[in-house]
Structure formats: structure tokens, C-alpha cells
Amino acid sequence: MKLTTILLFPVLSLVLAGCAGYQLGSTLPEDVQSVSLSIVNQTDEPSIEVAVMKAIRAELLMDGRLEIRSQNEADAVLKVTLNSFDLNALAFDRDRGSLAREYRMVLCASSVLYKAEDGEVILENPEIFGESDFPYVADLTTAKLGALPTAAADLARKVVSIITTAW
To answer: Which CATH class is domain 24-164?
Structure first.
């Protein structure tokens, strides 16, 4: 029994020492309890900012750490800029080699969280990706509309995780 305790203590000490410097919790300052959202679409794809705004709002509500308010009432502003919208062919029809059967939608964005009062940057991320794979059906426009909510949700999950979770 004594030998187990003697051996267990150094092992436990090494494991806990390996975690030194790690912090679990929020990256947000204590005075930031609410946020307003600003989504800017700099892509050629029309109206994708609507799906991204909806997805980020849903993710913030689900996370629960930040209240969503208007800009004049919020402690901070989360500005997400959609920088690119890409469709990449993943799989092709065996009979007609040039016809894509599956695509990947990639949304590339940058985000800045800053204090509403003085504009001080709290957190900035220059490149975040949201992706969705989808099959080609009847026409590409319909297929893209079906895949956009999934790509927007993926992007939203990453944006909210970055601003609320510290490791």
C-alpha cells in the first residue's frame, strides 16, 4: 500500500505539471456580457450573409454565454466579414467525366470582436472556414441553397467557439 502511494504521487505530480499554463474557460473579459452582430458580405455570392447571421445568432443563443443586443446596448461587437465563397468539385460522373456529382462549399471569413464603447479589439481571427459537402441535384443553384445552411452553421460554430472558449 505504501509503495503504491509513493509511486502514485510522482506520477500524479508529473501529469498535473503537464497541464500548467492551460486555462479552461472563457476568453471574454468580465465586462463583456452582451454582443451585437455585424456581417459583411465581400463575396460575389448574393445574400449569404443572411444565412451566416442566422447561424451565428443560433450558435450564440445555444452557447448562452453572451446575450445578443443592438449595437447601442451591447458591450461588444462581433464583426464577421465573408471574404470568399468557393465551390469545389469532389466527385465526377463516371460516364460523363466533366460533370461533377458532388461539391464542397467553402465559406472563408474573418472576425473581429471589439468593445462597443471604445473600439478596443478583444479578439481577432483573420481566417475561419465553414464547409459543407453536397450532391449535385437537378440544378446547381438549388443544390447550393440546400448546402448553405450547413456551411453557415459550421462557420458559426467555429466563430463562436473562438470568441468564447480559452484553452
So the answer is: alpha beta
